[in-house]
Amino acid sequence: MKGLYFQKSSTNEEITFVFQERENLPVIEDNYVKLQVKACALSQINTKLLAEMKMEKDFFPVGREIAGIVLDVGSKVSFFQPDDEVVGILPLDSEDPGLCEVVRVHEHYLVHKPEKVTWTEAAGTIRDGVRAYTALHYLSHVSPGKSVLIMDGASALGMIAIQLAHHRGAKVISTAGSLEDKQCLERLRPSVARVIDVSNGKAHVAESCLEETGGLGVDIVLDAGVRLYSKDDEPAVKLQLLPHKHDIITLLGVGGHWVTTEENLQLDPPDSHCLFLKGATVAFLNDEVWNLSNVQQGKYLSTYLKRCDGEAINWSL
């Protein structure tokens, strides 16, 4: 049985992918589940994070978002039984690649797959689904009547976040990086309150949001990155599509929540003072937050999928 792995060159400049023959999986023990993989998503491999966590190896398994059928369970497994259909995310330290016929995984990294969701949809949306749910539910406490700005709404994360926000009764504003993205967002039902086209670099996100909210500002911002420096110090593409951090602070309402994906966010004293005056909060959306705790991993996944089982999420988008 073969599995796909990636290998970094000695100079760390080149990555190669190789298939390696794997031995038969050991006897399933305790809380582990033996899983036949039906679908696996290919997400970006964060080599920087692996280095920071001192988890670098000669060969690192590829593919972590998986969906499949339970073949066997350990003696202490309490949530699953053979023939269950499940979906989950393999941990960073997993020895098994998702791109393999059979994997062995701890039960806390899996949840039951909703019946209406296909294998491909489950594996392809679970990561961004957990990110969106974490951002809106745990980090910003979205609720009916709240206004939410979702940057880059036509992305995978943005599309799921828009639907979850609508499901919670929030008013959604979004940005689009191209005409195609703008048309896609305008076709959504329930409709987005306002789509801000930033593709030409002329749209003012802060002004548009303040206008849409009657000058009050938005309650929640989920960004897709921000500009930290002046125009002269930023790449042209980033300058065109991303708002400046000052714009985000300006459009935030009193008691607002800013959820950022910018891991190197820098706030100067005047920025912090402005956030203080508004009573606003800043939260960081860490892609790997579910790897910090096995129990928390299962909690995040199961809560997200229970919310999505039915009409809340259009999995085909």
UniProtKB/TrEMBL annotation:
Q: Which domain of life is it from?
A: Eukaryota
Pfam families registered for this protein in UniProt: ADH_N
Taking every annotated instance into account, which residue ranges of this chain make up the domain Enoyl reductase (ER)?
10-301
**What are the protein's GO molecular function terms?**
oxidoreductase activity
According to UniProt, the name of this protein is Quinone oxidoreductase-like protein 1 isoform X2
- The species this protein was found in: Ursus maritimus (Polar bear)
